[in-house]
Structures are given as structure tokens and as C-alpha cells.
Design a protein that fits this description.
Blueprint (H helix, E strand, L loop, with lengths): L1 H22 L6 H8 L3 H7 L3 H22 L7 H12 L2 H15 L5 H9 L2 H17 L8 H20 L10 H4 L8
Helix pairs in contact: 1-2, 1-6, 4-6, 4-7, 8-9
């Protein structure tokens, strides 16, 4: 019984992520999430008492997964640049973009629940810079990455990825996501 309950909760959270990512918290109704999940609104409320609770749960999950994902690159084989390339490809995949959009709404919307806003304030860009800085410093020592200040380089890197995902959200058929090697040229050390 617990397995069925866990699977249903995951189904609801996946549906909610899609709806919140597209419409934001203000434009989302619980009935939309129930419809996306293929369940009744009554069943949805058995798992989450409110839209705010569901949104906050998803924000916490997005933060946890993004931090774990970035930390996991340290276990990948290859040079620092190889690891950054792998991270970049993962960040730009479509599944990550839903989490990005959710976090974008959490950072920019006026109607974000207090608990979700607190989570966002506790996990700023500095959180991600601190995780990535040792890798970028190692890459600089090996002569792979530009000699700029590591935190500035990482900030530019993350801002570039954020901008690309924001552009991609428009679902313009003429927009093509650039290749990872092209994107990373600005952090790679030139002779």
C-alpha cells in the first residue's frame, strides 16, 4: 500500500512541476495539477493540503537535486573541464529546465509562499559557486580554465546557463540550444 501511495505522490509532483514551470504559482490552480496528473482534485488534496505546500515541496526538491547533481560531478572521471562539460550538458537537458523554471518563478513571483521564499533566500548563487569553486580552481591550476577570479567565472557560467534556459522556455522552433563546447569557450584558457 505504501508503494502505491509513494508512486501516486511522485505522479502528482511530476504533474505539478510541469504546471508550475509553465504557469507559475499565480497562474496555477490545484484543479490544473489534478488534471495533468489524471486524478481527481479530492485525491490530490489527500496528498497535499494546499497549492503552497505542493509548491514549497517542489522548491525543496529542486534545490536538493541541483545541489546533489552539482556535487556529483566530483565523482566523474576526467579533467575539470570534462566534468564541467558533463555538468553543462546535464543542466541544459529538458528535465532540468522544468526545475529551473520552477526556481525562476520561486525567485521572481510576488505570490511565493513564505517557506518557499525562505528556501530560495538560503540557497543563493553563492551556494552553487561555493560547490563549484574547487573544481574551477583545479582547472585553472591544470591550465584548462581562464585565469579570471574563480567566483566571477562561475557566476558568469551560471548566468549564461540561466539565460539560455530562459530563452529556451519560449519554445520558439527557430531557437537552437548552442553546443556545450561553444558555450564553454569563454571559460577555457586560451594560449
Amino acid at each position: 500500500m505504501q508503494q502505491i501511495r509513494d508512486e501516486r505522490k511522485e505522479q502528482i509532483m511530476e504533474a505539478a512541476l510541469k504546471v508550475f514551470a509553465r504557469r507559475g504559482i499565480i497562474g496555477t490552480k490545484m484543479s490544473m495539477i489534478a488534471s495533468e496528473a489524471g486524478i481527481s482534485a479530492g485525491l490530490l488534496y489527500r496528498y497535499f493540503h494546499s497549492k503552497d505546500e505542493l509548491f514549497t515541496t517542489l522548491v525543496q526538491q529542486a534545490i536538493d537535486e541541483s545541489i546533489a547533481g552539482i556535487k556529483s560531478i566530483y565523482h566523474l572521471p576526467g579533467s575539470p573541464l570534462d566534468k564541467i562539460k558533463a555538468l553543462t550538458a546535464e543542466i541544459l537537458n529538458e528535465g532540468s529546465q522544468l526545475h529551473f523554471m520552477l526556481m525562476h518563478h520561486a525567485r521572481t513571483s510576488d505570490e511565493v509562499p513564505k517557506d518557499a521564499k525562505k528556501l530560495v533566500e538560503e540557497n543563493t548563487m553563492k551556494t552553487y559557486i561555493d560547490i563549484l569553486e574547487p573544481l574551477f580552481i583545479e582547472g585553472q591550476k591544470k591550465g584548462e580554465l581562464a585565469d579570471d577570479h574563480p567566483s566571477e567565472l562561475i557566476s558568469c557560467y551560471l548566468s549564461l546557463l540561466s539565460g539560455l534556459m530562459t530563452l529556451n522556455i519560449q519554445e520558439d522552433e527557430n531557437y537552437q540550444m548552442p553546443k556545450v563546447d561553444l558555450l564553454l569557450r569563454f571559460i577555457v584558457r586560451t594560449s
